Amino acid sequence: MRRGMFWIVACCALLSCDPGPGEGGYASVQGVLMVEDWNSTFTTVLSRYPAMDERIYLVFGDDPVPGADGRTSYDGRYRFGYLRTGKYRVYAYSDRFATSGNTSNQEPVWIDFELESSVGIKKHWTPFGSRNKKAHPFGIKAMKGLDLRELPEAAALMRRYDRKYLCTEADLEFLWEAMDQSHCYVEVNGQRESLYTNDYFDNPELAFYHAHRTGRLRRNKFRLRTYQANQSSFWELKQKHPRGYQIKVRTALQPGEATDDPRANRAYVDLLAQGLEAGQHRVAGMQALVPNNLQRSLRIEYQRQTLFNPLNGERLTIDRALNATDGQQRLDFGSLVLLELKQARRERHLLDRWSLQGRVQEGSFSKYFQCKRLMMLPSLPQSHRAFIHWPQSSTPIITRNTLYSC
To answer: What is the SS3 assignment for the chain?
Structure first.
């Protein structure tokens, strides 16, 4: 097994007019050192985990020797404080497997950064393997990819807080520029973007729809989700808790399993029981959310990309090319992009600042509720500001067409 390291670094500069890099200022650098275990041929990453109690060195400017050093904590985090602005290098030693006996079995892995005079935060996530000696230059296309199977189990965030933001495809460029050094994108079978198909179920009285419309604090949503990239499907139940967090329970669709309405009703009851057995909801109050005679209500498809932040485990999904059909009508959302931030606990995010600046629009946007509502209207609103505000970007063109059967 081969052992390599890579970095996640956050640099904060808070002081200007310093006489060069070194100690004696008010800036700081902090980050996380990670370990990658590779197989003997360096083709597969076997595991990733924080580097505990590893020695870290900080070099000031062009000095040939480090000016400070320390050790990582139990979760791989480290910090150097009271720094002046200027150029720095932080490095550690990674295992190296030499072919000759007179070669060192360790090699330095490092990242260069600069603490600037302006107030701000720069983030870098630069991977180092046992064969890599120099930092990989980052760009939008150079964002590190992470296979879905390599994500930690906790990243599934089955219990989480969701926040949603809206923008258009033209606004995504600044998103990539801001996220490419702190996040990685999740790959499924080598694909960065994949097609999702959601079949939503409701009863003839649209109990789930009206629970959302009336703002019921405790409500459910039930669907059959298919990941087209790997052709896997899951029955999924999402439960909204009065305290604001979401709980999702799901079960995989077995090969050859029926997906008709009777099977959907059984799957819904089974998933509801799983949530109750786990103590995630009180039994009282949930009984009213068990409608009878569930049937397909809406199919929604979209292209999704997922960004993962290894520092705090949050996920950011980017959904575009959104369309919906109920068998009679088709709704297309044009260039609309839905950003969904999924966190284990509520934390401030860069998207909150962008929302205040008018770059994105934060708000409640349930795919099922909004699509169903627009399809039931006699005609689409003349202005989409009736339900979506577009403070900066151009308004996407939303169309609704009648489907004809031959």
So the answer is: CEEEEEEEEEEEECCCCCCCCCEEEEEEEEEEEEEEEECCCCCCEEEEEECCCCEEEEEECCCCCCCEEEECCCCCEEEEEEECCEEEEEEEEEECCCCCCCCCCEEEEEEEEEECCCCEEEEECCCCCCCCCCCCCCCHHHCCEEEHHHCCHHHHCCEEEEEEEEEEHHHHHHHHHHHCCCCEEEEECCECCEEEEEEEEECCCCHHHHHHHCCCCCEEEEEEEEECCCCEEEEEEEEECCCCCEEEEEEECCCCCCCCHHHHHHHHHHHHHHHHHCCCCCCCCCHHHCCCCCEEEEEEEEEEEEEECCCCCCEEEEEEEEEEECCCEEEECCCEEEEEEEECCCCCCHHHHHHHHCCCEECCCCHHHHHHHHHHCCCCCCCHHHCCCCCCCCCCCCEEEECCCC
